[in-house]
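re: that complex we talked abt at group meeting.

here r the seqs, copy pasted straight from the sheet so there may be weird spacing, ignore it
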Amino acid sequence: SVQAHKEEDNPQKTMEVNGLMPVPDSYDYDLIIIGGGSGGLAAAKEAAKYGKKVMVMDFVTPTPQGNSWGLGGTCVNVGCIPKKLMHQAALLGQTLQDSRKFGWEFTEEVKHNWMTMTESIQNYIGSLNWGYRVALRDKKVTYENAYGEFVGPHTVKATNKKGTEKLYTAERFIIATGERPRYLGIPGDKEYCISSDDLFSLPYCPGKTLVVGASYVALECAGFLAGLGLDVTVMVRSILLRGFDQDMANRIGEYMKEHGVHFIRKFVPIKVEQVGEGTPGLLKVTAKSTTGNQIIEGEYNTVLLAIGRNPCTRKIGLDKVGVNINETTGKIPVNDEEQTNVPYIYAVGDILQDKLELTPVAIQAGKLLVQRLYAGSTTKCDYVNVPTTVFTPLEYGACGYSEETAVEKFGEENIEVYHSYFWPLEWTVPSRDNNKCYAKIICNIQDNERVIGFHVLGPNAGEVTQGFAAAIKCGLTKKQLDSTIGIHPVCAEV
Amino acid sequence: GKNEYDLLVIGGGSGGLACAKEAAQFGRKVAVLDYVEPSPRGTTWGIGGTCVNVGCIPKKLMHQAALLGGALKDAQHYGWNISQPVHHTWSVMAQGVQNYVKSLNWGHRMQLQEKKVKYFNIKGSFSDPHTVRGLTKAGKETVVTADNIVIATGGRPKYPNQVAGAREYGITSDDLFWLKESPGKTLPVFILYISLECAGFLTGIGLDTTVMMRSVPLRGFDQASHMSKKNQICFTTQQQMASLVTNHMESYGTKFLKRCLPTKVEKLESNRLQVTWKNADLDTEETDSFNTVMWAVGRAPDTKSLNLETVGVKTNSETGKIIVDANEATSVPHIYAVGDITEGRPELTTTAIAAGKLLAQRLFGQSSELMDYDNVPTTIFTPLEYGCVGLSEEAAVQRHGSDNIEVYHAYYKPLEFTVAERDATDCYIKMVCLREREQRMLGLHFIGPNAGEVIQGFALGIKCGATYSQIMKTVGIHPTCAEEVTKLRITKRSGLDATVTGC
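got the structure back, here u go
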């Protein structure tokens, strides 16, 4: 049974003050999961299948702009889902243009209404939040909308919105608290700038926007904002899409430039000031060059910061239970069974050190972890050759090594890169960019020309890449690829 | 040698051109004959064959036009202020499509020229095993001799000759893509998937379309004798998949007249066509009028005019198709055949191209690689697309027994359908595997948007002997439709609800 302790009459609390926390003899729960996102919920639902007593604690600390959201984590609320839907809205803008060439008639200039789109998307997200609540309830997983932090061995404190505190104990814990957008630490950033945490529910059209950053978040957001008809500028400190194949990254940038996105390269903002109030208001951004002393200024309705994300690991009491974190990055190192240095505490998702920050990875890791804990499985999460897709205006799907990393690991003479441009059939009639879509595979000559990297730039890149990822997992070689017949006419046959 | 050319290819379509260009790469002297006998309607076209002119290419473009109509409706939900309904003008689309096709004709001519392949626009027929003669359109006779000859003349749509008025008043896919004016209220009469695809895009651009079919969709494939049981395209006999596809079409406005057989077509004073048919279920005769009747009741090779008997090339007596071995060789030495004209092969551009290329490599490039016709992936571009690779469920059961196979399946909802409030009830995935141990994947079937893009990579997987467990170990890409393949957990055997719920 759950034991709720009031602060005043709690002997354990008193002992905590003295720094001595006893290990409980029996636990309230088999498993407590801190964080109700992709990884956390997947683990919770799986554990419930094995009849375990599970609790999920989820809490969203409001953004500096005061924004918050429901159960489901980043992906559902301020990540993959709204991002892809806004990307779709932007793509539809392009298809409206194409459709005229295919015989559809409409004379009026088509405009986009931000509120209509955002409302539809938020409604859908709301239904997902609700769906998760119901799913947890049906599986008899206890859900607490409260901020969880460790206070001692096997014990966490949950603080809800009203400030009420409760203590819970569990045999095991999974930390799945994810990340939040980083701020620049310059004057005006928290007061006037927004992040992806705010963008998807912004109650007014962002207008002329400056996106600071060159991560996939920055480029995806800049991409769809431009596609919706807004004036967008991206300020990049150095390179685009760090960590991704740079040849592909540059092609993405070129495409965006050709399609109306402005880029300011090698500058960082040093100050943001408000010039005019409103929704949106008018902001003045001062930026300094990274290569000299040049200072520039610009005015924008909205400044969107997308310079990286920080793991939520600093304020959850990890020191109280001795869980090590990387002091610089805040990420948690785990072994190949997602176990931290404290045997009964595990971690999954974006907070893990040296693992990909992807929803499906977190889900897979969470599920498999629980199956190992409670169902006698020995299967570990396979982090190798995880495919991913960046939903920029020209989508980029990838699996395996980038060209640079392959050269580094195997040596240039030992790899062969096969590549091709292609023109999607659907782009021919509306005369859309010829020779922009591109695909390449990287093969290891010494290992039977095994395909070790796959990269495609074109429409529906995610749909195309998924199957190739499966094939790569099966050890696909160039010969097998050559002997496979294409489906005609689709992009994937390239 | 005494023959003018090392290689003569009769037929400038997918297979023929691929073979010719590949042979030219080896420095060989190559000639291509291409000729389009005008359709009964008088439609004709340039070099490139069926795919480029009256097949895959214009079909997919018109399919895209229809999809864009759907996108226009979705766009409102995503915030675009476009007032409905939006009207479609056939001639604008047709011109765009036809211009592109013509650019491809031009491109092929250029490529042949660059590769120094001689092109003759003549209709050839054999006079001896190394000699082909033919007449140009102007009536001039040309004779061509070659060491090796490849027949790649493809097929043309059949007419149901037992239906009075079929040839005079009906059109086929040969004509549809070249119509300058809208076909209006259309009745595609159906056995092949071609009819479903056409009906699909015609409905999508706003035309009143009814599909008439003799029995259940795609069951007709078994009876269409151009498909041998051994090398069936994965979607033949796929009853379940066929009904999902047609359900979707019905909910979007295509009308179906099932188990009906047309008996006659007459022209009315208004220039409309009156069609009379027998309704097998009700055992009655019914009638209705249409602007256009399109026959899609099968395709047949045009081998008669080739004069094959003169040289002894054996054909299948029922289908008229040329019998070839694994080398693409006919019964006559030095005469080969590739593409739709060959017996027992899938009728796909991609297999024709691959076979043509490999043949050229074997003839001139010291290769011994044979064409692998197994596990050829394909896609039907109906409004809700159906892509597949490998065995159908029925074929797997037939081959291994239902106890030895496991079928994983799921009904899923594409993310983009949510905000657009589109119906996703027919979006479905099915993986057919062997039941034992690793559970090797035998077939994958996907109904949904961009089905071709989804299936292609998994076709590679099948070629690598992918197993169910390997697919499950592959992490999904989120959010896509394809990731649902990596999340298949429910088996048909379990009888559990296969609807995907949430993330």
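couple things i noticed - Chain B has a mean pLDDT of 89. Residues 158-297 of chain B form a domain with the FAD/NAD(P)-binding domain fold (CATH 3.50.50.60).
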